[in-house]
Structures are given as C-alpha cells and as structure tokens.
Amino acid sequence: MNSSILDTSALDRALSELRQNAVSWAETPLAERIGLLERLMPRIFDGAAELAAAGARAKGYAPDSPWAAEDWAGGPWVLAQIVGARLHVLRRIATGQDPLPARAVHEEGGRTWVDVFPATGWDRVLLNGFSARVRMLPGTIAEQVRDRAGQCRGRAESAGVALVLGAGNVAALTAVDILHKLYGEGQVVVAKMNPVNAYLRPHFERIFIEFIERGWVRFIDGGAAEGAYLTTHDGVDTIHVTGSDRTHDAIVWGTDEQADQRRRDDRPLIAKPFTSELGGVSPCIVTPGPWSAADFRFQAEHIVTSKMNNSGHNCIASQILVLPREWDGTERLLEEIRQVLRELPPRTDYYPGAEQRLAAVLKAHPEAESHGDGCRLLIPDIADHDDSLLTGEVFASALGVVRLPGDTPAEFLSHAVDFANGTLPGTLGATLIVHPRTEKNHRAVVQRAIAELRYGTLGVNCWSAVNLLLGYTPWGAYPGHTRQDIGSGIGFVNNAFMLEDIEKTVVRAPFAPAPRGLFTGSPSLSPRPPYFVTNRTGRTTLERVTRFTTAPGLAQLPAIFASALRG
C-alpha cells in the first residue's frame, strides 16, 4: 500500500477516536445499552421510506414499484426485527431472568436444540406458523447452553476496535453487522461502506447518531485501497466481512504471485480474528409428494422468490433447484415456474459484473430459457456436475435445475443430501420443500435429511433467507471452514440470545398459506408472505409491519391484516 497516494488522515482519525472510546463502550451499563436501542428504534421507521426509496432508485425502479417490497424487507424491517430481538433478550437479562426460557433448551435425537422463534406473542401473531430452532455442536449439553447464553461480552480489559466491511447488496446487512460487533462482541466499530451502496451512509449515520456522537461508531467510504489500509492497520483488532471468498482471500493471502504459496504454508498477511459471511451455491431441494394444483403454483412463487429477489444478488439465493427425476410433478412445477417468471415485471440486474456473469451462463448453456424480456434465465436440466453453475456463485438472475434419481422420498433425499453436501460449494444456506403429509409418512427420512445437510441455515418450506427476517436467529456458515479453505465463512452474527457452540439453524414455515394450510396439514394464520415477489400488496404490508415492529400496538393490526390478505 502506497500511503503517499491514499490520503489516510480521515481513516487514522476515525480509528484513533474509536480507540479512545472503546473502554467507555465496554463499561456502558446494561440499562444504558438498552436505552440506546430503544431510542434507535423510532429512528429506523422515521427514515424508513427514504431508506427503501434510495435502494429502489439505485436498482432502477420507482419507490412505489412492486419490486420495492424487497427494499422494505431487506432494509428497515430486517433492521427493526434484529434490534427488537436484541432488546427482548437484554430486557430479560436486565430484569434478572435467564436469557433463554427454561423450556427453550431440550435434548432430541442425542443432540441439544434451542427454540429461538417465536419468542414473543407478537411473533406468534405476525409470523404465525413460522419457527426456528438452533442445533448445537455434538457434545454440547443443555446445561452448557443455558450457562453460556446471553454472556454480554465487552469488559474494559477486552475492549477493542472492529472493522466491518459492509455488504453491497442488502441494505440492512452493514447495520446489523455493526450491532453484532457492538452488542455481541463488545467492540466499537469502523464500518467501511461498500461502493455499490455507499448511498446508504447518511441513512445509517442518522440511525446510529448517538453511537457516533459518543465515539463508538464511525462510517468510512472508499474502495479496495481504503479497505486494504484498514485491514492491516494496527488500530483494528478484529474484522468482519460480508462478501465473497475472493474478498476474504485477497485480504488474508494477498493478490500477488506469492498468494497461493502463503495459503499453502498458512502464512497469512493478517492474523487478526476474522469472521465472515461469504455465500456459495445454494440449493432448493423439492421432495416428491401429493401436491395439489394450488401447491404447485404457491411453491413456484416461493422458488422464484428465492432466486429473483434482489435480481439474484443475494449470497443466499437459490441457484440450483434439485428435483426428483421420476416424480410426475417435476415438469408441472417447472411449467409453473416458467409462468411466474413470465408474469413478473421486467427489471435489470444492477450489481457490478452481473451482465458478464449472465453472458457466461448463456455461453455455457445456449439452451437456456429466457423469460421476462430476457432478464431472467432458466436452465432446466443440468447433467454435468462440473457445470459452472454448480461450481461458482452466479450472483445474478439465473436459476439452474438438477434432476436426481429416486421414486420415493427416502431414495431421492439420500441422493439430494449427497449432491448438496458433496458437489455444491458453500454451506451458508439451503432450502428443503416437503409436503406435510410426506413428512408425516416419512418422518425419519426427512429428519435424517435435516440432520445431514451441512448448512448454517436450513429453511424447511421457506427460503433460508427468512432466517434474517426473524431477528433472533444466528446467521453464518456451517462450522468447519478454515482461513485456508474459507468456503462460506467463519462465525455467526445476529444471534440475539448470544448462543455459543452453534451448528445450524432450522427455520420452518407453513407449506401452504392460510386458509389452505388447514387442508395440507400445515395450519396457520399466515397468508402469502409479503416478501414473495408475486405479492400484490407486499410493499404496503411491509411498510405497515415495519411501523408495527418499531412501535407495536393493537390498533395497527387490522390494517396490517387487511393488506396482507389482499396480497
């Protein structure tokens, strides 16, 4: 790094100010930490419309476009959910309660599980039928989980400065990573904005104003040069990055001709504690079952959402749809997916490099189907397991299909688990779709698949990204990656209950929306989710839900339900 080219004075000043105030944050009493979040919460909604509108305009559509629902879901609502979850846990601790309710921790199948969602009555109302459980690492007993949960890190002797290298795709990620470093690890934070969404900086500075005024948070703009300077700075104690494995490797091993040798020798350029969330090739596995016509349509909308939300610029986007080759529903489901892709309004892939990545997909797959004025690709039958769609994250609006053998759920799921674990790179998240009657009739088979899929989040009948919407759940890759083989990253963020020894989170949602769920074996009060790309009132519903999350009140529920039911 040639510091004569880069003006580092602002970076040095930010780090110096943070260092001076690191101990004051570590010593801030719990009551004041709670108060800071309580005062932050209304600032989320006060600027929510402007935050969502900024995202919409940057992506090339109007703030009142149906697509703007994703900017509410991935911006102010996620942020409010995660702040609310932290407040719930911290208030329990402040009143002398255990962070976890006694019945939340239990043994099942020789492993310890923790029920983390729903945690409140409002959770049961707004996301009825949704649930999340965390499976702990082998050998972890219930008593250990209870003893280690909710340990608020951050004593004067361990105060430090964390660098957060922000995500460029989903608005809330940088903000919630900051909160994790502050509240989960007790460190003050310098956050470098990603150049792709640096326009969010003034919105974050308004939300975090109290933390900025007290010297606990600083925001920095810049590109690779600024990032490289900060990562190697002696004033930075720990690093968290949301990005790609290439970003991680460039920081840790460098980009020169010696980088590969450094990695082989395990001689990193930096040896600071480094956590990361780096994406991968995420599967959506569809179990054969007794689906109705309405099931095919609903799950087609679900699958398309899991790929086309944010134009596929999500580290957790479903890139590969895994279908049973012999199931008579496979072609029917694909036809419904085609129909949904055709019906969606056009939009462009905005993330840098997307055009080139899609062109590479088309070059490798001239048979690819183009839908929605050419802005969405479907590759309906990938046979070569060395295919580029199976070996690298496309991070754009292309969905590939792999067909595996198996005319029974047991046979198919065995192949699907082996394929996902053994062929697809990355362990951040996967989605498993299974009809309730299929699960009831093949419970041991489905439970074995859930246990064996090596992903940090497994969504059962919901896109694994729903993890982020629940607030309480840990978010990160399946344990086992190393800096030499980083995969989808190391460590968990969010994690409102501050659990240790995490293996994976299993998130569940109803297989069918209300009221049809009553007839499929998945009864709930939840209609079509507002984050579905096909939801006609998603933006309005999410705006109302965001207001409710920041300041709950019974009087708001009728308007939320009315909008949700129209969706």
Offer a concise description of the structure.
With 567 residues, the protein is of the alpha/beta class.
Q: Can you give a write-up of this model?
A:
This protein is of the alpha/beta class. The chain is 43% helix and 16% strand. It is built from 23 helices and 18 strands. The protein has an 11-stranded mixed beta sheet. Strands 6-5-4-7-8 form a 5-stranded parallel beta sheet, with helices on both faces. Strands 16-17 form a two-stranded antiparallel sheet. Helix 13 (293-308) crosses helix 14. The longest helix is centred in the first third of the chain and has 26 residues, at 69-94. The chain starts with 8 loop residues before the first helix and ends with a helix.
